[in-house]
Specification:
nine-stranded antiparallel sheet, 12 helices, 21 strands
Amino acid sequence: MNNRGLLLMGLLLVSMLMFTQWKQDFDPEIQAQKQAQQAQLAAQSQQAGDVPAASNANNQIADATTQGKTIVVESDVLRLTIDTLGGDVVGSDLLKHNAELNSNTPFKLLQQDGQTIYVAQSGLVGRNGIDTNAGRPQYAVTAESFKLAEGQDELSVPLTFEKDGVVYTKTFTLKRGSYDVGVNFNVKNNTSETIEVQPYGQLKHTLVESSGSLTMPTYTGGAYSSSETNYKKYSFEDMAKNNLNVDTKAGWVAVLQHYFVSAWVPDQDAENNLYSRTSNGVATIGYRGALTTIAPNSEANLKSQLWTGSKDQNEMAEAANNLDLTVDYGWAWFIAKPLFWLLTAIQSLVTNWGLAIIGVTIVVKTILYPLTKAQYTSMAKMRMLQPKITEMRERFGDDRQRMSQEMMKLYKEEKVNPMGGCLPILIQMPIFIALYWTFMEAVELRHTPFFGWIQDLSAQDPYYILPLLMGGSMFLLQKMSPTPVADPVQQKVMTFMPVIFTVFFLWFPSGLVLYWLTSNLITIVQQWLIYRNLEKKGLHSRKK
């Protein structure tokens, strides 16, 4: 990659990251919202208060986060803590993901403590609903803990509640190796009257600022999918401004954070209403299902799914349509998805994610080699024409029109495209951005070692060796550049570019730095081969 390519990429990347951080740190509107949120949080008690929710029926969804007795339901990958008062999931431990590198403490996704509320609530409203602000059901359960046994593929735990001759059974079903939890209601009407219930599910999260940093911007907030919109983020700021209110068949609602997601997936064959609200420093995003009528002496089954786990694209795609889009590659998704497939395919062969990153880089650089060759060939030809162009400037002086005409004539005679060095860079830019987001979003890289001192490809190099090597490779590429700029200011900018990039990359995830270092080394080899071939053809003169 030549100086101009590096400068263009650098300016675009740094501008994107700086703008993201500026929006969070200095935007007046966001700052006003942050101050309002902080005031709410200061007044918030350890538990969220009762807040009525808008409803399609003349009922209110229970919004209290009170606690009764808790039970634990565990599979091989997931441990749920369930409150028997309401049957809410108030904790989810991801047993295959450590909270910190080598900590042996499971990562907590859903949780409820004195500072953070992040819970998954579900229940029944409607004329005969049992989850309202007037009270919530105290479910009965046969034990305090349940665990998936060896050789068992599925674990179902029923919670039961009886009221006025109606038996309500809420069943949680965990499957081996899956973060997809079935949460189903069976309503048995033993009365002589017709009853009506309406299912709902909602995620509650303490209002927080978007997470991430200047070098690693990430998103914490809501998202949803509907029949009209495959995937859309709906941030806490959006919720504070305007309540979500979308009627859709199928769809889902979610709360996202880097590498992890919780989502309610209602019955995909039913009409659902997606909603949100904020109150007392807590954001809520959820769904309401269709009103269900149950005849006397009959029963109904109402199904839903709760995803609470890592952003495993393949599993999420099986769990619900478009749920895998929560792995957000931005506008470059159509390039990033095949790149991620390639990354996983190579990893399955080499069994090391660092080597897989190197493999992806080699494949991409090989595919782009014709563009790289065209780029450097064009630059070499332009360098060859510099003496003639300098002579023209001296001859025509301030006659810019004549100068322009003669230069175009020279380009035509020598079959040189003055934009030939820029076009390949513009074509490669979307691929670079797609790779950037692929490595940023891949949970597979979290706490994953490479070799030696690199024990986590999603974290920065602890000894800054890779960033320094990357800076050295940029410096070497700069020295090999065939078209040094003449302007003194640009020369100074180019001189400091390796230093600037090295400083930025000190805090980049080591997986990204490994990609860029590998890309630079491959470019150095390709550039040397291209120039050597051009020298044999007499199209390139060595620097003196």
